[in-house]
Amino acid sequence: PFTVGGGISSVEGITELLRAGADKVSLNSSAVRDPELVARGAERFGCQCIVVAIDARRREDGWDVYVKGGRENTGLDAVAWARRVVELGAGEILLTSMDGDGTQAGYELNLTRAVSDAVDVPVIASGGAGCIDHIAQALDASPAGGHASAALLASLLHDGVLTVEQIKTDLLGRGLNIRPLEAGSRAA
Q1: pLDDT range class, residue 186, cuts 50, 70, 90
Q2: Is 173 exposed, middle or buried (0-12, 13-18, 19+ CB in 10 A)?
Q3: Are 16 and 6 in contact (CB under 8 A)?
Q4: Is the pTM of this model over 0.70?
Q5: Is the dihedral of CA 21, 93, 59, 143 positive or negative?
Q6: CA–CA distance from 91 to each of 47, 74, 181, 187 (Å)?
Q7: Spatial distance between the Cα atoms of 81 and 77, rounded to a whole number of angstroms
Q8: How far apart are CA 121 and CA 49, in angstroms?
């Protein structure tokens, strides 16, 4: 599904994007400013259309939610915020570890697991992928894994380190439940 985010602050903005062809919208700073936007969007378009992006940074005893591209601490607890937005109608969480973002040192599995275990909607792990093992760890449902439903990665693909085909082949070989490549397709 095609998801669009950034600068969405009203139901009218959600409407415009969905009419333009988006399948889902992603709310972050606007959801923190106006949590009821999540509820209004879900009520009008369905929970499946509303993704809440959560940018989190570690603190001594958990993780805080950040907005404005990870520059401003809201003081909200990331796990509690995830629960709240799901109660309001979010159908998916895009969870980015701001500590791990860009490091290629691996996803923050403790954060991902804590949020995934706290909510009953898909959680997308983001921030820190550096190799196929990191992706597999984020998707791993075992006690040591991240329990994520999906993994977001950028630089590994943008920099040509891995291809989608390599990633899918490896993850399928590990027995993870992912959609295989269609016959004859070549992902670059």
Answers
A1: low
A2: exposed
A3: no
A4: yes
A5: negative
A6: 5, 22, 26, 28
A7: 6
A8: 12
